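All the exercises in this workshop are built on plain-text protein records. A record pairs a protein's sequence with a compact description of its fold. The structure tokens are whole numbers drawn from a learned vocabulary of backbone shapes. Once this layout is familiar, the rest of the handout is easier to follow. An example says more than a description, so a record of this kind follows.
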Amino acid sequence: MSEVSVVRLMIGGALGPIGAILYAVGFRHLYLAMRDGDLRLAQIAFVAFATMMAFGGAVHSNYVTTGLVLRAREAAQAADLEVMETLLEQSDGYIRFLYIILGTFGLVASFVFVYAVLARRTRYPRWIVFLTPTLLTLAFPLTRFVPSPVGGIVFGGFANIAFLIFFIVSTSVLWKG
């Protein structure tokens, strides 16, 4: 990230909240597939997934800070390196804090979704629980075995890939009725 231009860092950071909005739109179809079976569960899942993605947008935006601090560290004098390391640790700590919040909402949403599907309170077949993004992300450690340059893309975008798979399958299942 220290070698990426400042403009690219800022554009990437600004895309985080835009992505969160698009995810919320995507979760609307999940809500529609759940609401007839149990309106309350559908509302909880939708709000929890949308909130998870709002915090995901915040995480994405905060990587700009990490990139800027890394750039500054490259130019820092030896005496300033300790300050730069402290900034990096604090920035990383904040991002981890956001991930905890994001993960909590993601787990709530996933548990509600899986429960509703298994209890047959949705339009989804039961097998869809195996493609729940939370379950798919358990395969994340395998990304380090994907060779470069594709491996870097898969590693960095793994959560998005998991949701893409889920949305494609979900849309296909719901489209077929």
Notes: The chain has a mean pLDDT of 91.
